[in-house]
Amino acid sequence: MQLLSALLFAAGLATATPLNIPNYAQAAIDSGLALKGLNALATLSALTRTGGTCTPTKIKYRREWRTLSKADRRKFVAAVKCLQGKPSVLPKDGTVPGAITLWDDLAYAHAWRTFFVHMSATFLVWHRYFLFTYETLLETECGWTQGLPYWEWGLDVNNMRGSPLFDGSDTSIGSDGVFVPGRPDFILDIIGGPDPEPIRVVFPPGTGGGCVERGPFNDTVVRLGPFPLDGTPWTNETVYGNNPRCLDRDLNTNPLQRWSTFRNSTELILGYDNIREFQGFLEGDPRVTTEKPIGIHGGGHWGVGGITRDPIISPYDPAFWFHHNQLDRIYWIWQNLDFNNRKDVFGTGTWGNFPPSPNVTVEDLIDVLPHQPAIKIKDSMNTVSGAPFCYVYV
Question: Measuring CA to CA, which of 43, 174, 186, 296 is 20 to 30 A from 150?
Fold first, then answer.
């Protein structure tokens, strides 16, 4: 609590508004100090709502990767590699013939739900439950008892290769991919907005493009997919079969500098008071924004590149979990700054409401079967209720 008090003081709470949110100077926003202060406020707010089995001694503290000791980083890497070696628990009924390990199971859990949990009402809450599933498996199967670490993009917008997360050392999650020269720009045409013309976003290629070159996870095997999006029919054998290939990355500061800076994250938290706009700008939903069509969500995915750009099987890269944990952190901060008014969802249950589907409510269910049972969406809002969550971000 002394650390939290110090952060609150540093954030300038002496001039706080009646909502207890300071009027941050632009320099504080751009440096990350404001986001750190908002995190501290959110933590204090969350800790007033512990309940059930989530007692103060059981709370998991989710921390930024570089704040862990090198020994703990190595322990986490070992736990993830352990999980990658555990056998699949999916039914052997031919649905997912390529699932060999729990790592494949997690990729499948995301893959088959892709068009229901992106650009839909359940994007943030389902991914929160997915992260909890991963965190729980790391503990029960591989002995990692601390909170799940996250990646603060704002610290790496100018030098991803030098990031402690991607520097290729034994305390990282591996390096960039092998550099592939001569590649053209990436062109992303986003449809679904009010204008029939797509929103075009162009990225230059990153600094890799090939298989992860060195460090932990350069031996990670991607089995499921690829998933063609050109109309080619999918079958269980073609997209869920065993198609072993390397884990590729293409680190790229351009998307981070455009979409995932400290300013992007902080202005998102402070700029919107309803879930439709907050989540819409976070995802870059073209039904909500045409000016920010990628959002902090897309910025992180495109910043890592490689398979992490793939909206279907991106969980194969350990970076996926760090990135989505940061997204959940941003969502968690936003919620806890006005918790009583930020416990709802907005939208339907399909990507961009295609095909049209009913509106989702907090009484509806989400699951990560067979690894986690169905829960009501309303039970995913409080992360210290003990039913089922018990974590905060620091």
Answer: 186
